[in-house]
Amino acid sequence: MRARRAFGCLILLLAVLAACGGGERGRPLRLATTTSLQDSGLLGVLVPIFTGEHDRTVEVSAVGSGRAIELLRTGQADVAITHSPVEEAAALAGGRIAARTPVMRNAYVLVGPVEFAGIVSGAGDVREALRAAAGSGRRFVSRDDGSGTHQRELQLWAAAGVPRDSAFSLPFHGGMAEALELAARERAFTLSDRATFLTRGRELGLAILFQGGDDLDNVYAALEPAPELGTDVVGARAFVEFLRSPTGRRLIGGFGVETVGEPLFTPVD
Question: Is the pLDDT score of 165 beyond 90?
């Protein structure tokens, strides 16, 4: 009788374990990502190929980098792609994420209506360009949402010696494409990643007014969850390995060539 009960308990335990494994495998991989990867269209290329190779659907939450890190940290996402190095380093050092893998880069650009070009034309670096923009009397659309772009914007304003709460700042909570639309409506400056601008901003009558320099380098990293969160660590690792694979790197490096005439992202070594 005891042997029969033990055998029955073993079968029940195996069934529970199988159900748990099947549940993880059966549900979508939850990806939290910065809005620029969604708005530029890159995810629309990467996700279907990953799904085809791994027979695994992906559920995308396009949010700011700060929110994406929070979703991963609290077990509401299985993997994240962000571009906020300071926050990423803090999360890694604090044990809130298990791994950070740089996967691609592009650059930030200062954009605005084409007639604003003369305002910043003499700037030698982005700090000078921002000081000129601040002194022009024109508005500046600020993401103001804790995103990677917003964090970089705050760093640049501080480096330029311009108070973040200046009257010219137009706070906005939303994605990069929406910020570009608002800048076009308000005839204002804004900071954008180059990929989203080239795919969404030029049709709005905006132009790149300043670009170049290490201060505007923009690195995207894939973040994996801490194991104790109970999220899909296996799926997260598979997704990161896909991004770093020859296929993933080819897709990243070639994205944008056919549509805008140049690569919009560069895989990192």
Answer: no
Q: For residue 18, report the phi and psi dihedrals to the nearest 5 degrees.
A: -65, -40
**Selection from 86, 127, 39, 75 nearest residue 219 by Cα:** 86
User: What is the reported pTM?
Assistant: 0.87
Kindly indicate whether the domain formed by 2-106+219-267 is annotated with CATH number 3.40.190.10.
yes
Q: How far apart are CA 111 and CA 129, in angstroms?
A: 11
Rounded to 10 degrees, what is the CA torsion of 257, 148, 69, 61?
A: -50
- Only one residue has tokens 């300071």, namely 86
Quote the distance between the C-alpha of residue 4 and its chain's center: 54
Query: Distance (Å, rounded) from C-alpha 208 to C-alpha 196?
Result: 12
Mind listing the pLDDT tens digit for each residue in 85-120? 999 999 999 998 999 999 999 999 999 999 999 999
Is pLDDT larger for residue 210 or for residue 5? 210
Where does residue 209 rank: exposed (0-12), middle (13-18), buried (19+ CB within 10 A)? buried
Give dist(CA 122, CA 131) in Å, integer.
Answer: 11
Cα–Cα dist 92/227, whole Å: 13
- The CATH number of domain 107-216, selected from 3.40.190.10, 3.90.226.10, 3.50.30.10, 3.30.559.10: 3.40.190.10
pLDDT band at 166 (very low <50, low <70, confident <90, very high): confident
Q: 234: closest CA among 98, 103, 104?
A: 98
